[in-house]
Write a structure and sequence with these properties.
homodimer; 122 residues; two-stranded antiparallel ribbon; DNA-binding
Amino acid sequence: MKDFTYNGRIYYSPVELTMAFIGGTWKMPILLVLRKGKLRYGELKNNIPHITDKMLYSQLRELEKKGMIERKVYKEKPPRVDYFLTPLGKRSIKVIDTLNKFGEHLMVVNGLMVNNRKRPQN
Amino acid sequence: MKDFTYNGRIYYSPVELTMAFIGGTWKMPILLVLRKGKLRYGELKNNIPHITDKMLYSQLRELEKKGMIERKVYKEKPPRVDYFLTPLGKRSIKVIDTLNKFGEHLMVVNGLMVNNRKRPQN
DNA sequence: CTGTATCCTAAGGGATACTG
DNA sequence: CAGTATCCCTTAGGATACAG
């Protein structure tokens, strides 16, 4: 048995734990964007297409709790908040890069092409 | 825009595609077990603790459709079926190993210990 | 021993509206 | 600008029963 418990839940393999930290639809895209360095909320939003406020905030909070990112609040107005990677977060980037590479390979294998912006069909 | 479509669904990054192939609770454990070589259904079941028949079968079917594993049926009785990795599946092992390593690191960082079998508390 | 089908619940995630 | 809350729906995944 290699079971272990984290936050009251049972995990059966380290892989599962990894997915608890960086899994889901949005955590990886967020982490990847933050590799650029400190970013404030609006910048994050602009760099992650299609994400909703709810998802961005909830995922930021989770990543924070798990020690992947940090938040720095500036006492200014209008309010300013920066998000940036912790050492653990930076470490995860390498893992995500691996997943990204494999994904690109899958695209080739399956003959997938990036959606080109359709020209007006006149 | 780096969007692309696969099986009628829109993906926004290669990472998402990767997760479609090896994501979920059980696909990675299954692939990892198959690194040992050909295995029949019963052997798979025995080597993946806590998995239910429904999940094992459904995930095997999905992995097959995606070209990660193959099925070989022997005309015997009782029936015998072998499952084994395709080249693509073998390639995924390296990725999963990366995730596994990171998970082990997370366990250390979070001070998680493997659940020891409790001794009878007499 | 291999393989499906049905029922049901918990959780992830989208849309939308609202506040300091 | 940054940050929450509520409603709702889809889906992964568990339990169980059944079939060649």
